[in-house]
Amino acid sequence: MGSHSHGQADTHGHQHSHGHGHGHTHDKIDWATMIPDLQRDDAMSAEASAEIARRLIGLIPARTEPTVLDIGAGAGGQSVAFAHELLARGGGRLVIVDAVPELLEVAQQAVKVATAGDDRVRVETVLADAAAPDFGADLPAADLVWASRSVHHLPDQQAGSTRLAGLLRPGGWLALAEGGLPVRCLPWDLGVGAPGLQDRLLGLRDAGFARMRAEITGSTPMPYGWNVALSRAGLEAVTSFSVLTDHPAPPAPAVRASVVAWLTGLNERVGDGLGEEDRATLAALLDADSETYVGARDDIYILGATTVFLGRR
């Protein structure tokens, strides 16, 4: 998948949507350069995003004209899904929030195109850093606050969760996409190099995530799960559900491109931590002119799971 991920730079889980800071964010990631990868991820995750939107928008009472906040919206894939669901129930207000101006622009444009500019969904953008002490001051009270793989980039994840919960109207829902299962794309034995390369790459990525967390200024441990974080944020009816992103082999052309981007991203981020044989294997897999090119294989695929934790104010 290109993340956060997410390829996309989410170090954990999958690749990803996200931003906080200014161009370079607290996690030292330059999100603006990752827009093509974020957009590719959004395309691969479109079905999962639609399912998430159906379930979450469905929680809002029918009598309400909903206000939805998408915090750290990335390239806007989930915003697009929310906009479709809001249109299906007659309209609403969608506020796209990010700390990276380029991402706000791309996300707003994606929603505009997807809804053909239908003004029953009122789309607003707000440039804001979810880690700032005054975050939320310029945001409306919401029926749904959504943050996908962005809270884990904040210095204090519990404080961030509590701050997001504070944006809810009474009866509103906070939903965080965190955790789940990392995207997998490769067979165990590739016929080149030692088997299990994908597991070694994902292990290095997890170690990199721990380092990223440790290097954030003011980083505070959160030694418990996201459901506990939502309960500590004062929310009720806390639960979770998971959705799959599943593109089985043999791969469509877009899946091939996405797997190449995913492996390229992993190689750039963690390749230096591999042994010599694995580095040579990666070079062979990513050489488009070689018969070992990963993008030409018929046994590559995309499989991952996104877990959504939610609670009501």
Structural overview:
It is built from nine helices and ten strands. Helices cover 35% and strands 21% of the residues. By secondary structure, it is an alpha/beta fold. The N terminus is likely disordered. The relative contact order is 0.16. Strands 3, 4, 5, 6, 7, 8, 9 and 10 form an eight-stranded mixed β-sheet that branches. Strands 1-2 form a two-stranded antiparallel ribbon. Helix 1 crosses helix 8, helix 3 packs parallel to helix 4 and helix 6 packs across helix 8.
Our measurement of the CA-to-CA distance between the termini, rounded to an integer number of angstroms, reads 34 Å
What does the main sheet amount to?
A: 8 strands, mixed
Spans of at least 5 consecutive residues whose pLDDT stays below 50 are 1-24
H/E topology pattern: EEHHEHEHEEHEEHHEHHE
Beta-strand proportion: 15-25%
Give the helix proportion (percent range). 25-40%
Helix tally? 9
Say how many strands there are. Answer: 10
Integer-rounded radius of gyration: 19 Å
The secondary structure category is alpha/beta
Q: Can you give the mean pLDDT? A: 91
Task: Give the overall shape, derived from the CA principal axes.
Answer: globular
